[in-house]
């Protein structure tokens, strides 16, 4: 532990007769260090406060820092809403705008702990309501995070900027949405918070609410004009975000207020693609029931089924197939979902695809079958699966490579042995006359 910070000990024989409440105040602002309650301010043994009634306050050094967090006594008083103690400290010179090691003033701390009375006192003595910490948070950001509605109201009434942004471009409304602080969000909106304001990533408060499944706050935002189809810097709407986080209830709310279920992001992903990627089956089901196109393609030609195969999202893949997803649909490279499953060693999804008619010998644009992909990635189990369902072991790609030659190229001994045991021709030549 770092003991460089000076602590002044008050011995039992030091009785401050002229200030009977002093010890009480000091105990109130005690701190916990290493699970032990240690008084913050300690008076040296040789200090007898008789001739200098203010000596204690000078010795305390009101701007003294606590541990390595840099907090002053005023920060501690704000944390515990000790208004009288804070008043006492301020009257003896405590700096109301002093910052701790994270750039937070006592007002930030008061907002965090909803210490309204102490916050009011600090403001009355010149605390800057729009002062920022090292992350750019004002006290209002902190109040929104902790749903400290009363303190937030006080801050706003004294000039706090409701649209002030932190270092990441987030307003207090973004923070309220993240923490589902509905009451504070309502307060912010009533005082002019822009519901469609974006952070540095282009997220509106509605994007954040969708990410955190803050349905109540999302509902509030929409009722005050939040654009349900607004896009972030990556072209994602709140519905994309809800699908990613499997926020089914929020997704349902967004759709009921006009969210486009087939809207694409910059990579061509619909919310259904995202749901497939994250195996958000319930959200995927909701999207499909509201018209999501199960065969819609992204910029690379992937359907949601391709994505499900890549991520081995078997349950979502099953849902997609049951609603008409084409198991043999190809991407821009000619790959079916089975090619992808083989490449990613998604055995369960591969089994599902085959059971629903996936062609095990379908070729991509380079003449490769799923077996070529499985061998390349040394997916022995999928190799066995494909062979057991009729995969042609000696099928060649455009360069004349069989699966066995691929196994040799990638030094996959076990896979090679498996192929040979099922009749792979070890003398088969490629386009250049090379054998294994």
Share of residues in strands = under 5%
CATH topology of the domain at 1-161, by name, is Serine Threonine Protein Phosphatase 5, Tetratricopeptide repeat
Q: Compute the number of helices.
A: 24
SSE string, helices as H and strands as E: HEEHHHHHHHHHHHHHHHHHHHHHHH
The appropriate CATH architecture of the domain at 1-161 is Alpha Horseshoe
* Arithmetic mean of pLDDT: 86
Write down the oligomeric state: single chain
According to CATH, what is the class of the domain at 1-161? Mainly Alpha
- Give me the side-by-side strand order of the main sheet: 1-2
Q: Give start-end ranges of low-pLDDT stretches.
A: 1-68
Helix content: 40-55%
Instruction: Give the strand tally.
Output: 2
Which structural class fits the helix and strand makeup?
mainly alpha
Distance between the termini: 65 Å
Query: What would you report as the Rg, rounded to the nearest angstrom?
Result: 33 Å
Key descriptive features of the protein:
about 425 residues; mainly alpha; Serine Threonine Protein Phosphatase 5, Tetratricopeptide repeat; two-stranded antiparallel sheet; ANK repeat
């Amino acid at each position: 532990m770092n003991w460089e910070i000076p602590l002044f000990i008050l011995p039992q024989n030091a009785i401050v007769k002229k200030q009977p409440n002093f010890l009480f105040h000091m105990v109130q602002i005690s701190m916990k260090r290493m699970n032990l309650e240690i008084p913050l301010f300690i008076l040296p043994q040789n200090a007898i406060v008789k001739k200098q009634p203010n000596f204690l306050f000078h010795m305390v050094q009101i701007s003294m820092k606590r541990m390595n967090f840099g907090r002053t006594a005023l920060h501690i008083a704000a944390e515990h809403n000790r208004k009288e103690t804070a008043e006492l400290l301020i009257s003896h010179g405590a700096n109301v705008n002093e910052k701790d090691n994270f750039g937070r003033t006592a007002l930030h701390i008061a907002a965090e702990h909803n210490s309204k009375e102490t916050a009011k006192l600090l403001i009355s003595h010149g605390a800057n309501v729009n002062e920022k910490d090292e992350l750019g948070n004002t006290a209002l950001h902190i109040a929104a995070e902790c749903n400290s509605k009363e303190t937030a109201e006080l801050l706003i009434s004294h000039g706090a900027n409701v649209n002030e942004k932190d270092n990441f471009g987030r307003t207090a409304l973004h923070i309220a949405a993240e923490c589902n602080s509905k009451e504070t969000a309502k307060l912010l909106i009533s005082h002019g918070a822009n519901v469609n304001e974006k952070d540095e990533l282009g997220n509106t408060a509605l994007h954040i609410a969708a990410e955190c499944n803050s349905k109540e706050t999302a509902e509030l935002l929409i009722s005050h004009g939040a654009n349900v189809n607004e896009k972030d810097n990556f072209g994602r709407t709140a519905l994309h975000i809800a699908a990613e986080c499997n926020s089914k209830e929020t997704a349902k709310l967004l759709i009921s207020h006009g969210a486009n279920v087939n809207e694409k992001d910059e990579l061509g992903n619909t919310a259904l693609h995202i749901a497939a990627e994250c195996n958000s089956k319930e959200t995927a089901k909701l999207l499909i029931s509201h018209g999501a196109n199960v065969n819609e393609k992204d910029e690379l030609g992937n359907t949601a089924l391709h994505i499900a195969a890549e991520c081995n999202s078997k349950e979502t893949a099953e849902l997609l197939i049951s609603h008409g997803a084409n198991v043999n649909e190809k991407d821009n490279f000619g790959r079916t979902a089975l090619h992808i499953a083989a490449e990613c060693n998604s055995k369960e999804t591969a089994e599902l695809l085959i059971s629903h008619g996936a062609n095990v010998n379908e070729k991509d644009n380079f003449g490769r079958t799923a077996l070529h992909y499985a061998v390349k990635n040394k997916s022995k189990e999928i190799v066995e699966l494909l062979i057991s369902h009729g995969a042609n072991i000696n099928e060649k790609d455009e360069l004349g490579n069989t699966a066995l030659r691929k196994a040799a190229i990638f030094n996959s001994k076990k896979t090679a042995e498996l192929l040979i045991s099922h009749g792979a021709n070890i003398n088969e030549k490629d386009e250049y006359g090379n054998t294994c």
